[in-house]
């Protein structure tokens, strides 16, 4: 396959970002089609590129023989049908997280792919491609720090403008990244999750539990703490500290980037700017993720997070949303991986 | 009172450190007496200073009219009697943590001091005197970051040589510092504590839960996570991150101190040395604590952590040791502060 | 121009890196041809890509109508002829530094381009594309720190394996980057340069002045200090501190990247790995430089460092090599920019 | 000598700071007398301590048999006479820098002390007592980084309110610290100094060269660059980077202390406060310097920077003030150390 012809479904903030990435920053790929319920938005975006068709029906885009591979950046509620269509049409697909809205539907995708007989699906857990997270994985796997014991995650967003935002979304849409990071770095499943609700910030919508503190227990007995804070007012901050038997690692330490001192009214200050959002913090990770997906698709392979990774993360978050209601630990029940052929 | 004449009870690592501090690094104080069950150790230490008497019976040291104030660095199990004697003899006393072995005995000291009618007791929570913790308190209290929502603590020791070391000691002797930090920075009591036991490091004694992860709930609904790891093999690392409504603070960030790059076999490295133990990490805090105690005692005041602070910390740790057995949250029951006159 | 067809001349370390960049990591470009005196090396490299021709004569590559644009990564001594051929054939060209071996030859290229009547040449000063240097430029130009007063540069390489390495090369091949950075950040020409030779490291070849300390005076009176150290044994370290009237900026601070603590024989350590060489330190900058050059070439523009920038840097380094011999300041004589039409 | 009875001459900002240090933060010393031309200022300060006499004539204070040791914090122009009186009366003396106003007068003090037959004088180069500088010295002396090749110093003050401030004072009163640091860390004399004047900041007084860039050549061929900037508007920043054959060291890196993120109008920021002045940045160094001087004086020793160190620093600064006028290197002529008995 000389050049991978890519179609994108859903061109909100994330999908539009991917469109520019495929068209302007990726080798050996061409953006050929986009689909979005908002036809005007789709047309406006398509006009920014050469030779990109707007296709009204996402299923038509998937079925189009001129489309080799699909990026799904639509809302999670329509992922199941769209990914399934990709599998049916044997299209390589990069699906943004969450894979689907509950674990049963995610499992159906795992099974469908198993039936199809070839891996086709990569789930958009882009942190695995961030250079520091990737290096952390290599160092932990090298064994030179001994066994991994703990992870401590920090995940902060400046604010959530969505007036329909609910506590569960913090688990399903934000914490899901820490779920994948924990499974990735430990190389183990999560067996239990507790989601705690401290007194909320006054910047959260009424009734929304923000920030949240979560605890995962790993299959090997390791433990993971995560703070997710969606209205921290400052900016986007994502950090991960791994504690192993003979040392520790931190990815995403604060105070990176250009450093400045500045005169002040009274005291001068030192410091820099916090990332405004994930598009700048993980710009490199997204670029590497998409290029890696393009390269693998051209070789007819899947090298990133798999359908099973998407399913397992959904299952953990489903349990996490239950825990959120009570503050009690909830056991994660996963299907037998060997039975579903994953 | 021109010069404060200080006696020290217990001259193990901590007491010997305090002896040198009083004699060599503190203004307006004189080390005049030491007491220790190990008479040889006491004699050897006394010989390093001018005019320091060895008194075999700690109660005699406390009662001695030539001793104005006492530092208690003996094992926690004898603290109650020794502090009580100090109160009875109206001696200013700086007692190392833990105040006593259980909350009932600590409460008795609170009551005894109330009966005595004047504050005499300061508990050795020296982190309050660390410049970064102290500044953190000032910034949080200033309100310019809004209400405090969360604390995340890290507390690591290189190793524990004690062959009798047990899981409970991590709560009572180490986590007790995070208990005080949480109460200090929030300015609130802790209402509930959970102590979790991840799979232990292979460097811990058999049966010892190390590391531990703890969760405190504050009276105002705030939450505190703490990792305590007593056999991390690396060195001494103590860190505290406060998360408030409009910003965050970190005391004890990694990578402080002299920075170095060094040629290596393959890759060169950047970095520095981790503190070997608390005596170097908190050298300044201990100096400031003891000087502050000397100054206050000469003015017949107590300005550091009080008997109530010592009692409340003991009560939280007592509940924490219960939680350690089950991993379930345990409610902290405190006496009515107004009833005991504290 | 739909896809930019790129030919590369010289496929040593730098050229091979660019080949992979164009073929595997750049959008809207195709690597179509390479030329190198070492035919075997060229053939081996070409075999790693699809449809890349090996052309023995670089002049033939430049003239080839199937080649739209050329990257020159050959030794500096042959740059003049190759760049001139690109100008003659109206090919967009990205030429690695140094532009040429002396200022007279560089000036001839400036004049040739002026005669051609359209900008075609970009010089490979990739630091301008490094995110931190680029942000530094924006902040300094914003004026919110006031006028720029000083720059302090650090530029260290692990070692130089070349047995023919001479002191002048440190000026011409390494310091040339600081020369461009100074001109870029100040937006001014350099009027005088002093190159000092401290007692050399024992890791340098006999007779080679390494490290070197240089001082530039800018047209506006600002000053620049630079340490260049080519055998520092540690790794690759490049840093720039700008001092302005109301604040400072540092790009490339030490201690970036993944952070680790590790148990040691005696003292544990904190830190990370130093970049081994420029390919990792400036990986992002090279990617951005080449993508930007591809995009601009497709729009028939030049947006990076120009032929004049290449000439001016060469002129400063020529003066610097004179200064190296005496340690005395040498005035930089530049052609009249308006006369040469640059 | 049980308690060292200290008198202080000159109680401006520095002397008043030392008064509080001796009285409130130092062991085994008593502040007994102060002298200052401003009698009111002296009386007000004395009133803050117990038993401190105000003596109008500094020579009387030095001669007073109730005074064991003297701290001189008066203007440099009267140091020679006062130090000489201390030597004559065999009083241990800690004299703030600069030792005297020119090298001839400093040399007379070296000779006077030699005649007295015992070391009595310590010069107030307190950076030698800063924990990071002291550790840097130990690491360099250990030899594990190889021979020291270069130092790069940064020395910034927020502003200079003095309306009589002149360019020479930057050399004599500020750069003198870098002069001592260079001699201390290399363990060698400085043989030549160049002081360069870039275009000055608009915050400097008319005609004052600020910032300045200096170059020292060491006796062994090593080289030292120093930026001194007295009106940087931001705060107090002092940094030293040592470059050795197999690694580097940095003392006083930026971004130390309490770290904060704060919400902003647009972009949130990370960072902290810059030290306002030397009293906070070097608080610990001053405490350690004075305690060390007290301890040594009680043992009838001098352990800090000696009279020779003070003389050599003055000689270098004298040459530096000459260089400031021309920008040309000036050779430093030192007396023959063996001849003067130092």
UniProtKB/TrEMBL annotation, chains A, B, C, D:
Pfam families: GFO_IDH_MocA, GFO_IDH_MocA_C3. One of its GO terms (molecular function) is inositol 2-dehydrogenase (NAD+) activity. Its EC number is 1.1.1.18. Belongs to the Gfo/Idh/MocA family. It comes from Leekyejoonella antrihumi. It catalyses: myo-inositol + NAD(+) = scyllo-inosose + NADH + H(+). InterPro entries: Gfo-Idh-MocA_inositol_DH, Gfo/Idh/MocA-like_OxRdtase_N, GFO_IDH_MocA-like_dom, MI/DCI_dehydrogenase, NAD(P)-bd_dom_sf. Residues 4-124 form the Gfo/Idh/MocA-like oxidoreductase N-terminal domain. Keywords: NAD, Oxidoreductase. The gene is iolG. Involved in the oxidation of myo-inositol (MI) to 2-keto-myo-inositol (2KMI or 2-inosose). One of its GO terms (biological process) is inositol catabolic process. This is Inositol 2-dehydrogenase. Homotetramer. Residues 133-249 form the GFO/IDH/MocA-like oxidoreductase domain.
